[in-house]
Amino acid sequence: MSAVVEVDVQGPGRRHGAAGISALLLTALTVLTACIWFFPIYWALVTSFRTEDETVKSMSALPLQPTLDGYLYLIQNSSLPIWYVNSTIVSISVTILVVAMAACCGYAISQLRFPGRTALWWMILASFMVPVPALIVNHFMIIASVKLVNTYPGMVLPMLIAPVTVIVYKQFFDSVPREFREAALVDGANEFQLLFRIFLPMNWGVTTALAIITFIGAWNSFLWPFLAAQSEKMMTVTVGISSVQDAFGVYYARLLAGAVLASLPVAVAYLLFQRRVTEAITLSAGIKG
Amino acid sequence: MLKTRKNEIFAALVLIAPFVALYGWMFIYPTIQMVHLSLMNAPLIGEGTWAGLKNYQRLFNDRIFRVAVWNTAYFVILTVVPGTAVALAIALMVSRLNGWFQSIILAMFFLPYVLPVSVVYILWDWLFNVQFGVLQNVIQPIVGHPVNVRRTIPWFMPTMAIITIWWTNGFSILLFLAGLRNISREIYEAAELDGASRVQVFFRITWPLIWPVTVLCLTIQLILQLKIFDQVYLFSRGGRTQATMVLVQYIFEQAFQKNNGGYAATIAVALFIIVVAFSVLQFQAARIRRAT
Amino acid sequence: MRGILGKTLATAALLAFTVGAQAKETVVWWDFLGGGDGVRMKKLIEDFNNDHKDSIEIQGTTLEWGVPFYSKVQTSAAVGEGPDIMTYHSSRIPLGVSQNVLVEITPDDMKTIGLGEASFAKAPWEAVHVDGKQYAVPFDQHPIVLYYNKDKLAAAGLLGDDGLPKGLNGVDNFAAALKKLQDGGTKYGLSTVTADGSFAYRTFYSLLCQQGGTAGSDGNWLPGDNLQKMVNAVQVEADWVKNGATPKNTDYPSTVALFTNGDAAMMINGVWEVPTMVDLQKQGKLFNWGAVELPVFFDHPCTYSDSHTFAIPNNVGKAQTPEKHAAVLEVIKWMEDHALFWATAGHIPANKAVTDSAEYKALQPQATYAPLTANMIYDPTSKFAGVASPLFDAAGNSLTPAINGEIDVTTAVTEFRDTLTDLQ
After folding, report:
1. What is the pTM of this model?
2. Mean pLDDT taken over chain A
């Protein structure tokens, strides 16, 4: 931690006197707040590497006898591997379908003239007002009526409603100069080629950003997968770790190891694509950075 | 020319078809069906009978519904403005930093946002554990004894609010950071030349310029927190759920625990109206502001 | 893009197939046994699967006990996605039947299993019947008991020469004993679930019965002076909490931890925690302990009990194939035959052949508390009673604040009764 503070001293600290000291204090405060904010995650990591005995006996800053027992147990004996597969299938399906449908729809609304275009656009805008959790009862009835409860399609379908993605695409396609489209049309390209060869590649960054944020959202969603997955074999990680008990009493290190494993994919995705995630969030809120 | 026009319409219809079909099936249809169902006396799965406005009458006399409305409102009060204020403070702190140092500090603030709710639940449940939770070391000196925050009603919602702010604040922080970045350096430099203090700079320059982002954050948070379910459900399991009930949880309880599909839909309609009302109010407020 | 989607769907299909394509009959099993007894049930399932390597495989899932479990059962059965067999509390069977969640167990089924009325203890056998039809096969009886730390009781002079507690009968004596234990340096005299009135209801119901009281029946709950008797019952526990003998707002895991780590000298909990103690002691991590029938706080001994049973969910649109049904019956029969091992989980088997056996009679501390079967009381037969029922909800919501001193006991019990009376 001291190294970090040192680096900062060369930054705002360059100014001298009282301002310099207050800047230093502010930076120290920032670091302290960040450490407090991060503490729950840190504590989960520490606990997950403790022995079970230690979890209830020690509050040391680091595990006294670090062990991977919790992790090994989960990988070997629990359904966590299956839940991982389920979460992956569901999240990837949702991501691909949402992005693909939104790109197509956003392109049509942005570039093409067709009857009902304005109405469609207004409906998409208005759908912000509908609280999706209010629809769970009817979603369940619909999915049950087509016998898709406890199946992948049944879990994916209601998770595909993402009007924001359409709006973001539309706004980005709007900003593509009209000449591109006209030139390509003169060259004999059709609308699909235009979309897939010109508009999408031009906005590749947007697509990546939207895909990442959709993936994270899908991986983390709880309420609908919790209702749609009835058997242990169909549960996602998020649902599984909070519904299935391993019937061996309370094992804290194991529980926290499960929590760490459950969040690993999204945490890694975030750390790898930090900039894209930031971009996606500001995009989806309608702020162009 | 007519042919290209026809082609254009055809292409447009093909392109919007998947989205529109899904949107109709998973969004418009359930919304209409929800209203219809609220007029029925029906189980979750199976035939129902027409009930007219009976469910609505019941809603108005339902003590637990009122508790759920109050708890939801209480939760919104505890999270929206405080959460946004905390996010702004953090964004101001982080925006002073730069380079990889900023990235690390930002990551420490943002990481909770990407955690699944079950993980958030397991983490905090462990932190607050009455016997072995590390946070009891903070609670005990203040209160005098360990507190089971899940089961002590006055502690429940404030705890949920703290956890929620911790969990979802990354989003607002990023919005504020983007907003702060959009303020040109020159304004600050000019202020510095004038010898303005940090506090003056904040209230005279930063605050007015960041106000639109603040409104955006508040709106997004408001609509989001009205739909609170996950955390409250997970933490209240096995407790006095009636005392800690929130609206979406009440929908869930009526439909999936009590098998009252019709009444659940009625509560859903009520939630729907509340959210729409807030959205319209916000929209009108924005219009009035623009007009003046 | 279509490639990836295709692969995704293919993977899904493949997964579905690998489950379905085996020649072996798969029995999907749900239970809620997350306590010490869960370990024993896992072992039973494992042994069953080893015994039936070529014919049947149980795929077990343990879900969160109580409301989450029963909500899931109800919803999944309604859409035909429930398990093939599940554990079910006998107290909830009338409610389950009213919700159409349970399939009848026919006399033919019982013939296949080779068991009948004569094979079971009377109370659990009666509890699985509604309107003369059988809806589950009883597996055990699980009353609550008093666990005690022998070392601490001995130090406080509360242990007899026979190793059993003494001087605990009567509300005042018990309170005095708690005080003695605390004066001796123990943090709490007694740990019991105080964060959840629906759990504590088991104690209240026992104490109501000890005064000769009754819970009543549909539309006529806690009639006459039974209201006062219930108030007396709840007051006992509220006083323990008020005097600091029992910790406030303590939930299940903490209750057990307080006892096992020596912070509490006694614990009121279900017999299903016996294996937790046995296992800890085996690892050398526990003091000398014992478990006995609840003391007589009022006039005569009486203890609440429920019963775990096996039931078949009514999976709408997906009736069991004869092969599957036969496999399910085989599972039940095998479990009943191996109920002696289940007894090591603390439960009292419902199967009389097991409870009459010499092996069972030699088990400790089971043999110590076995006599309480003569003094057991089950929940009233009502579609409003049982685990995760409206009564259970009402107990949780109305009685919890009374235990913890947030509201007056009489107000709480009256509210509890009124909530029940309003049920239709």
Report:
1. 0.90
2. 87
